[in-house]
Design brief:
This protein is α/β, with parallel strands linked by helices. Helix content is 38%, strand content 26%. Its main location: membrane.
Length: 257
């Protein structure tokens, strides 16, 4: 396995005592997979992503990437957030180069790498534009290009399309599938959108809440990933199974509260 999460537990101290957010998380992701972790609010999705990103440390357990324990952020992982986190005073080219600049990459090399990934996401002609001149979907593509410019082994995505309207979100889904197929990068994405997860992922980790645990791992085998697949009964079956599972876990969490 390329990514391994082994017996991971995470709790936070509160005035009422320890709050267990993640409990006994075990999962693995192969190199080149596109996986989604899905769960309702309170399932610890973002907390799990932060452990994998190295932005936070588990209370116990371990995260390993390519056999090495994660102890902090690293260039092997690129991060894309729901909000674009672009610098408004920098143009698209400068925003895409920014991470490379922080790493001390020489100017010519970072310019070439950023330009290449802007071409990958289809934004070469907007290299000199400011973020305010871009649509929401275009801003998110800049954020993805910036993450890819450092040439990470894995792309971590924290509900990256949650702030987009329905039509833009659908076009971004198709863009992401094309990007993944062309680059072969490993993608770990969290979302609360069941249809989004079924459409994009090879596998889905369904998280239960209070505390967050992996309740089920679903393998998604669709005959194609075009937009018409959403009308197919196979897609509906996966969607309904996942929604029923999350609904059941939500009811259990409320009953236990």
């Amino acid at each position: 396995m390329f990514l391994e999460v082994d017996r991971l537990n995470k709790e936070f101290a509160t005035r009422l005592g320890p709050l267990v957010v993640l409990k006994d998380i075990n999962l693995g992701v192969k190199k080149g997979e596109f996986v989604c972790a899905v769960g309702a609010s309170g399932s610890g999705k973002s907390t799990l992503l932060r452990q994998i990103a190295g932005l936070d440390q588990p209370t116990s357990g371990e995260v390993r990437i390519a056999g090495k324990t994660v102890t902090g952020p690293g260039p092997d992982r690129g991060m894309v957030f729901q909000h674009y986190t672009l610098y408004p005073w920098m143009n698209v080219q400068q925003n895409t180069e920014f991470g490379l600049k922080l790493q001390g990459v020489p100017k010519q090399i970072r310019r070439e790498q950023a330009s290449y990934y802007l071409s990958v996401v289809g934004l070469t002609q907007f290299a000199k534009s400011l973020p305010k001149e871009l649509s929401g979907g275009m801003k998110q593509r800049v954020a993805i290009a910036r993450a890819l410019a450092a040439e990470p082994q894995m792309l971590l995505m924290d509900e990256p399309f949650g702030a987009l309207d329905v039509h833009t979100k659908e076009s971004m889904h198709e863009f992401m599938l094309d990007l993944w197929q062309r680059t072969g990068i490993t993608i770990f994405m969290i979302t609360h959108d069941v249809e989004e997860a079924v459409f994009l992922a090879n596998r889905i980790f369904a998280l239960g809440a209070r505390p967050g645990t992996v309740r089920k791992i679903m393998n998604i085998n669709l005959p194609n990933r075009g937009h018409t697949i959403k009308r197919n009964s196979i897609f509906h079956d996966y969607r309904d199974e996942l929604m029923d599972l999350l609904r059941q876990h939500g009811q259990e969490a409320l009953a236990a509260a």
